[in-house]
Design goal:
This protein is of the alpha/beta class. The chain has one domain (4-226): Rossmann fold. Helices cover 29% and strands 23% of the residues. The protein has helices spanning 18-25, 68-82, 91-99, 179-187, 201-226, and strands at 4-7, 31-33, 50-53, 86-89, 103-106, 113-121, 133-139, 141-144, 150-154, 162-165, 168-171. A nine-stranded mixed sheet has the order 2-1-3-4-11-10-9-6-7. A two-stranded antiparallel sheet has the order 5-8. Strand 3 (50-53), helix 2 and strand 4 form a beta-alpha-beta unit. Helix 2 (68-82) packs across helix 3 (91-99).
């Protein structure tokens, strides 16, 4: 790949995530575009060979508060229309779905997934997940898929955890999050400990210790194919 774009929403953390670590380890250059900070997204997909849209605390439909989200919606549609490989993570996955007519909204009981939750393959997702995996999560919105999208994985609380739409794939979970980044999340004042569905700090630590090596191996295998 020649030009790889990472779209940031200002919640990157101080330590590099697994996408950046993979790209640096494999000698691929990338550019970070931050629409929230005034950066402009490309108006053409010419020369772009891969895009990753990260998560964030914004809500994907809040274009009145965050006008740049509308630009991201349009950019996502251009990427899918052009067949550019696109990975959306959490808010990025919501952007892919919402930009193509899917619904994104909180659960009626306002429950969160905050911690490590089992993600189970569905249908064609068995090619992506050989077996259920516990994945890092921090979100309170669910995704109702747009026409043409295929669900690949679910969890007990949120039916859509992974999906494919043309050249795009969306993950509601956060496989890019390393233990260092998870600890930064846990230390944030807005960390939703005590919210419905959220795990305790001790639960998160135990699950991190148990599953992080498998998460890392799985995601690096996925990235090898995605950036091939």
């Amino acid at each position: 790949m020649s030009r790889i774009i990472l779209v940031s929403h200002g919640y990157d953390g101080s330590a590099p995530d697994r996408v950046r670590l993979f790209l640096e380890r494999t000698g691929r250059s990338y550019e970070v575009i931050a629409p929230h900070a005034g950066d402009t997204l490309p108006d053409t997909m010419a020369g772009i060979d891969g895009v990753v849209i990260y998560g964030g605390a914004q809500e994907i439909y809040q274009t009145d508060l965050y006008p740049y989200l509308a630009d991201e919606h349009a950019f996502t549609r251009r990427a899918v229309s052009a067949g550019v490989p696109l990975l959306g993570i959490c808010l990025g996955a919501q952007c892919i779905a919402y930009a193509h007519g899917g619904e994104v909204q909180p659960r009626p009981d306002a429950a969160y997934e905050f911690g490590y939750y089992e993600v189970r393959p569905e249908g064609a997702g068995t090619a992506l997940f050989a077996e259920p995996l516990a994945m890092p999560q921090w979100h309170w919105h669910g995704i109702a898929l747009p026409e043409g999208a295929e669900r690949l994985a679910s969890s007990a609380m949120f039916p859509t955890q992974a999906f494919r739409l043309g050249s795009a794939i969306g993950f509601q979970f956060h496989p890019e999050v390393t233990p260092e980044l998870m600890r930064e999340w846990q230390a944030l004042p807005e960390a939703p400990f005590g919210a419905p569905g959220a795990q305790t700090l001790d639960e998160q630590q135990a699950l991190m210790d148990c599953h992080d090596a498998r998460i890392d191996a799985w995601f690096n295998t996925f990235l090898t194919g995605f950036f091939a």
